[in-house]
Amino acid sequence: MMRATSVNIGTTRHLLAGGRQVQSAIGKRGVAGDVEVRPLGLVGDEQADLSVHGGLDKAVYAYPSEHYPFWQTVRSQAKQQLWDEALPPGFMGENLTLEGLLETQVFIGDLLRFPRCELAVAAPRQPCFKFNAVMGFAQASKLMVQSGFCGFYLAVRNPGLIAAGESFELIPGPREVGVIEVFKSVMAKHR
After folding, report:
1. CB–CB of 182/108 below 8 Å?
2. Beta bridge partners of 121
3. Given 4, 19, 71, 99, which residue has the most CB atoms within 10 angstroms?
């Protein structure tokens, strides 16, 4: 079954990254109840750098819950958390923590049909120095690239409401370009 295990929002705040203070809204927190989904994202959610986050094609960021144990282990090895300390939903900066759908199964243009809204897969996430800061070690972005555990951005096709625990259906789009292929191609250009 595919479902949103958590719906997460966050506001911009100061973050120490690369030795300097920057604004970031990567720290999302799970919320209970219905959350309104508008064309530019979830009500109550913010993005600090609109040149790389947000907008119509990056309105909502989704991340598979299946990758959380990997990041928990890596952070524990980097001595950024205790071994048995679970990462809270939203820690990766995602608005939707999803269960049952990995990047390898998703193509640009696929539709996620929730009971009260529809979201279309638009692009993979690209890690940055802020991700390294939140993860607590300088190689976090490199690990995201190597693992392909990037998550994906969603455009809002039909606004509405969404809540944690809701199931969704994957409606295939053209199925021509996979999220992983786009991610690997874009990240290879940045090396």
Report:
1. yes
2. 154
3. 4
Looking up residue 130, the CATH number of its domain turns out to be 2.40.33.20
The tokens of 170 are what?
């994957």
Question: Which residues, 6+ apart, have CB-to-CB distance to 146 below 8 Å?
Answer: none
Domain of residue 152: give its range: 3-189
58 three-state secondary structure: helix
pLDDT score for 191: 63
Q: What is the pLDDT of residues 124-141, one digit of tens each?
A: 999 988 899 999 998 999
Q: How far apart are CA 52 and CA 30, in angstroms?
A: 23
At 183, give phi and psi (nearest 5°): -60, -50
Domain total of the chain? 1
The count of other CB atoms within 10 Å of the CB of residue 173 is 15
Q: Which long-range contacts (CB under 8 A, 24 or more apart) does 141-144 make?
A: 143/74
- In one letter, which amino acid is 72? Q
